[in-house]
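Aim 2 progress update. The chain analyzed this quarter is reproduced below.
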Amino acid sequence: MKNKKRTGQLLSAPYLVWAAIFILVPLGMVFYYGLTDKTGAFTIGNVAAIMGAEHAKALWLSIGLSVVSTLICFLLAYPLAMILANMNVSQHSFIVLVFILPMWMNFLLRTLAWQTLLEKNGVLNQILGFFHLPPLNLINTPAAIIFGMVYNFLPFMVLPIYNALVKIDPNVVNAARDLGANGIQTFLKITFPLSIPGVISGITMVFVPALTTFVISKLLGGSKILLIGNVIEEEFTQAGNWHLGSGLSIVLMVFIIFNMVISAVFDKNGEGSML
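Predicted structure tokens:
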């Protein structure tokens, strides 16, 4: 027994070293820079900078676009997940693979594809022009950013909901129907409540990356629309102000931790996981 325990500790050692180097050390640096000024003295000014007009505007815009994107993803993902869950094994395995395939493609390439589609002389406007329809000015707008978020993060909503739905015992659904419940009643009383862990997990997995992204807004929003992720990225890469960038990052960590706590509360058994 002791040998097995010691073997387990040895096997976990590489992960612990990896976690210390690539998780704990970067987090420690973020908190150090975020809570100190250029002289090394303690300050909360970098965190409080989120209350500034420019930073607050970027934060609320990020939250707004993330909420809208998450809602759209949910409305698209839930019916699709139900369709997949009701297919036979060979069919839904293929369809699930189709949804996973885009996740294997480079994130930057997927976003650049939307830039090609939505730009002024892009594919979409060329198709509209072919049918003598007026062009759409979508690039460098919040709508373009939402399109990019939904496309990139939709699989992260579909898979947890699908995983929760396939775990529902068919006998429970059949029992509800035998007791006289119609389709809508069965969905509201049985299916949807039992799929809540997957829904919460999907919301978390979409909202968090949507809130923190800067690549999508940079490529599809241009320099006209700044989200909080863009502000932080500019502080690190252009202004060279690691203290302010880290302070704003700490604010985002609060949102991320809050979402993780909610997900843990509603999905204690991991029923909404993607695997």
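The first helix runs from residue 2 to 34. The CA atoms of residues 138 and 144 lie 6 Å apart. These observations will guide the mutagenesis experiments scheduled for the next reporting period.
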